[in-house]
């Protein structure tokens, strides 16, 4: 988790690749599309994962996966709309940072 005074200073959304966030402490993290979609924090996706199912791809999911829209959700998260129509997940910045650091501790 990021200290309270560490905030994202840049957010780059590449609809075909993923997101990159630059932080006020100089850290830069990148997360690919599939990792983002599979870790969607919404209740529906959490429920699927609890049942041992993946939230993506689902039957009739469009390939390749793409972000169709992204917007800030207040000052604490990123709301993403996917090309499969899913839009319920809001990705908190501190959770994105924690997940990226857990996947690559050298970041």
How would you summarize what this structure contains?
The protein is α+β, with helices and mostly antiparallel strands and 107 residues long. The chain has helices at residues 33-38, 43-50, 93-103; strands at residues 8-14, 18-23, 28-32, 67-73, 77-82, 90-92. The protein has one domain: NE0471 N-terminal domain-like (2-Layer Sandwich).
Task: Spell out the blueprint of helices and strands.
Blueprint: E1 8-14, E2 18-23, E3 28-32, H1 33-38, H2 43-50, E4 67-73, E5 77-82, E6 90-92, H3 93-103
Antiparallel strand pairs: 1-2, 2-3, 4-5, 5-6
Total number of beta strands: 6
- CATH class wording: Alpha Beta
Q: Helix/strand-derived class?
A: alpha+beta
Give helix % range: 10-25%
Percentage of residues in DSSP E strands: 25-35%
**Overall radius of gyration:** 14 Å
Give the domain tally: 1
Overview of this structure, please?
- It is a single chain.
- By secondary structure, the chain is of the alpha+beta class.
- It has one domain (8-103): NE0471 N-terminal domain-like (2-Layer Sandwich), CATH 3.30.2020.30.
- The chain is built from three helices and six strands, in the order E-E-E-H-H-E-E-E-H.
- It has helices at residues 33-38, 43-50, 93-103, and strands at 8-14, 18-23, 28-32, 67-73, 77-82, 90-92.
- It has a three-stranded antiparallel sheet with strand order 1-2-3.
- It is globular, with a radius of gyration of 14 Å.
């Amino acid at each position: 988790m990021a200290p309270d005074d560490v905030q994202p200073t840049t957010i780059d959304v590449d609809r075909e690749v993923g997101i990159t966030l630059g932080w006020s402490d100089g850290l830069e993290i990148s997360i690919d599309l599939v990792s983002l979609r599979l870790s969607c924090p919404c209740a529906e996706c959490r429920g699927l994962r609890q049942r041992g199912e993946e939230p993506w791809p689902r039957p009739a999911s469009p390939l390749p996966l793409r972000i169709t829209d992204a917007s800030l959700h207040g000052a604490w998260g990123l709301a993403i709309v996917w090309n499969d129509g899913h839009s319920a997940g809001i990705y908190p910045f501190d959770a994105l940072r924690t997940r990226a650091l857990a996947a690559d501790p050298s970041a």
